Amino acid sequence: MNSRPNILVIQADQLAAKYLGAYQNPIASTPHIDSLAANGAVFDSAYTNFPLCAPSRFSMMSGQLASTIGAYDNGAEFTSSTPSFAHYLRNLDYQTCLVGKMHFVGADQLHGFEQRLTTDIYPADFGWTGDWTEVRPSFANDVVTFTDAGVCLRNVQLEYDDEVCHRARRKIYDLARANDERPFLLFTSLTHPHDPFQCRPEHWQRYRHDDIDMPVVNTAQEDMDPYSLRLLAQYSLQGNPPTEEQVRVVRHAYYGAISYVDDIVGELIEVLKETGLYDNTVIMLTTDHGEMLGEHGLWYKKSFFEEACRIPLIVSHPQIEQRRIGANVSLVDLLPTLLEIAGDPGQESLCEAVAGHSLWDMITGSSTSREHPVFAENLAEGATTPLLMVKQKQMKYIYSAVDPEQLFDLEADPHEQINQVANPDYRDLHESLSQLVHEQWDIEALTGQILLSQRRRLLLREALAKGRHSDWDFTPADELEQHCLRADKVYSKWAYQDILGYRVPQK
Q: Which residue of 39, 64, 125, 207 has the lowest C-beta tally within 10 Å?
């Protein structure tokens, strides 16, 4: 492997690890992702640090927990002064390009990327600011998820991801024929399989409807913990659960959307191979968080159950041997891992300590395990106080100042049905994990910071909605223009420039 390989990161949205063939799902039709897993390292215990889109991504890019950088919810700003992995790799002389969704909130819509080829699919303002006093935000999901799930020819998400795929493929061709000798980081971010749960007919037809698996844990609403009930109230599902057939249709469409993502992964790999870039490109596949998909009676994200917070993380390269890694890791580990891939194994380019640790030694096989706990947060609407999680070895502990503590032994209880908090056999583990939480966070101070941030942003949202509106949404340059003939160029020179892979055909 070249000491400074190219890097292609493919990030899906709301993709739970358990619904991929690479994670032993017998139903999923994901041959391209399966191929990545067969030629690389698969992390079996990877987690998001915040089961919500924007905070998860800001945490991942900065290598910091969301609370450290003020990324409390989907309407929190990712500040321009926060270093990201794009800044660091750019400083290490990598080309850095973003294609697709990143859910940046604020005026800075690049955060270190030299180039961004698409607009974002979501707004860049404070419109989705969390409010702990609100039971049901105006931007929350609702029952249309179930009434409108199924098959479609086109929808807004398909239009968006088709364009992301097209521009990412074109960018790989441009990278292959460019004179820039720097290695590249190409971050390609899709919005599927995020709801709406709809897919094209060809992806729906890859599955028999009767073969679609149903939720394993069907928790009755009267048996749910208080936070789960608040989530149902947000989605107008309390006392109004979807029917069994609606659940099966949603899950069928979700599988179809995953197959659509898999097709895009295959297209990008094919272009890397076609251009000769594949052999020196590290490919990472991951997501921002998972999807409950009816397990425990819950939907979407914002939960610390495995379906919402355990994510796929696959790292592939022709020279990486296939291996499965059971260590607990999380998205904050991506920044230091990318630094090591880019030639900074000692992390000397960091201007401050980060929360993550490089995974490269486990990916390459020079180390097989580690003991760092995984920390995760949920500080958004519905939490009403910081909801905090730590996972160490097989134990998961969840703390909230207003809800009962939860302690799950995932080895003995993989479906998280038995809360061990009151079990005397787990007393020592309970105490040690509770201590970890209180050492990691100053919960009282964090609560005050979040409430102040919410008040400020809610005021700004109200004020900026009045009078003349100026948005922060990113509008990319039209890359097609660079391939067009203009008056200052000679046709014969223009038409025969930038040709990639030309050869004289054999007779």
A: 39
